[in-house]
Amino acid sequence: MTRLTSIRFTENKLEIVNQLLLPHTTEFVEINSIEQAHDAIKSMKIRGAPAIASLASLALVLHLSRSLDLSPVPEYLISPTALESHIKPILDFLYTARPTAVNLGAATRRLSKTLQSSIAAGSNARTIADDLIREGRLIADEDENRNKEMSKWGGDWLIEESKRCGKTGGGLNVLTVCNTGSLATSGYGTALGLITYLHENYKLGKAYYTQTAPYHQGSRLTALELQTLQIPSVMICDTMVGSLFQNHKIHAVGKEFFAWSQTKLTFVEAVGADRVAKNGDTANKIGTYNAAVLAARHKIPFIVVAPVSTVDLDIADGSSIPIEYRPPLEACLVRGALYPPSFDSQGNKELAQVMITPSDLDGIYNPSFDVTPAELISAIVTEKGVAVKKDGETVFDLSGIV
Ligand code: MRU
Fold it and tell me: In the β-sheet with 13-17, what is the strand arrangement from edge to edge?
């Protein structure tokens, strides 16, 4: 099955797909420096919590591999102390590219730990650089497999749950927001991975996805991924979630949220995450909270699918999760291709960015993420399994899964 890809790294050439141009133009952009990686993450040429962590790690890998090939070697490769003073600011700088997704910080912390252990082991600068290269590659490479694992955990669990609820025939419908597929990760995806898994096992009815304004990760990226994977799907505007739930024949799932065992399970909502606090409160793309409130109202299970590295045990609850505010102008603009289409001399569709508001608006509120309280979340699925709340609890205890 063809899949889209967000990062290509072969023979010391690092490239990303410029996601700002998707779905109309597939343009690979070379990343040749730490600054370019930082800029690509900040400007959202690459986005999605796991993908930005992978790019940051690979940018360091590229930097070190190229440095090792230089003759004479640069001064920072002459001693462990010099290398430490060189690497630390790079990791600190990469960490500042975007604040909400914990994966970026988890990756830079992991690389920093590798640096410290290699120094403590008495390695020379070259060996330390090799250790960092190995770890950086691992961070990017391990993502796809763990996505497959969490998708299987979540998918099998949902299939069992729906059997337990007496569902026979017909697949599960799954609503998702934002983009959590192979463009947002190193491959397969988290919530979109779960949808793919259900589809591959003939258990998916349809995938529904919100457009996800103002950046339209849903209508630009999830739409393209689902189309490429040939998964039956329906796009809805962000404002239509309530209407979808009201008008779809959804079987109520019991008085207690999550206690859908007495009824038929036909619809679930599955989203990714940028940071999950210790109690399960989850930061994800703006609009996720709205969709979660509506899911609760309609007694639809709401599931978070994310790697263990997205769980931040240092944060007790969602109130301390740092929320990124994007530049106000971004909420006034829409990107896309001209319609009716027109083509440049190379035959490429002409792209445009149009302003949909009066210029110079005074007040614009543009948070990039919101926090869904644990109370509204039925389950948190990671590569280690499915976490649910204990009976009568409104929060999760995630301390055991990290
Ligand atoms: O601002 P973005 O596009 O980087 O936000 C992405 C999301 O919110 C995703 O849902 C999240 O990172 C999970 S991606 C597997």
Answer: 7-10, 13-17, 28-30
Length reported for the chain: 402
Contact (Cβ atoms closer than 8 angstroms) between residue 282 and residue 319: no
In DSSP terms, 351 is beta-bridged to 337
Catalytic entry in 274, 281, 312, 370: 274
Report the alpha-carbon distance of residue 177 to residue 175 in Å, rounded: 7
Reading the block at residue 336, the tokens are 């896309």
Distance (Å) from CA 100 to ligand 1 centroid: 10
State which amino acid sits at residue 65: S
Strand partners, 70: none
Whether 283 is in the pocket of ligand 1, judged by its Cβ within 6 Å, is: no
391 labelled catalytic: no
In the structure encoding, which two tokens stand for residue 391, read together? 């009976």
Distance from C-alpha of 397 to C-alpha of 374, rounded to nearest angstrom: 10
DSSP-assigned states of every residue in 147-191? HHHHHHHHHHHHHHHHHHTT--SS-EEEEE-S--STTTSSSS-SH
For ligand 1, whether the C-beta of 218 sits within 6 Å is no
Q: Which helix (H) or strand (E) holds 218?
A: none
Is residue 322 within 8 A of residue 99, CB to CB? The reply is yes
- Tokens representing 190 are 């988290």
Round to whole Å and give the CA distance between 1 and 94.
33
| pLDDT averaged per 10 residues in sequence order, the chain, 402 residues | 87 95 96 98 98 98 97 96 98 97 96 98 98 98 97 95 72 94 97 97 94 98 98 96 79 38 68 98 98 92 96 96 97 96 93 96 97 97 96 92 80
DSSP per residue over 48-106, as a string? SHHHHHHHHHHHHHHHHHHHHHSSSPPGGGSSHHHHHHHHHHHHHHHHTS-SS-HHHHH
In short, whether 6's Cβ falls inside 6 Å of ligand 1 is: no
| Residue 247 to residue 212: CA distance in whole angstroms | 21
Pocket of ligand 1 contains residue 146 by CB under 6 Å: no
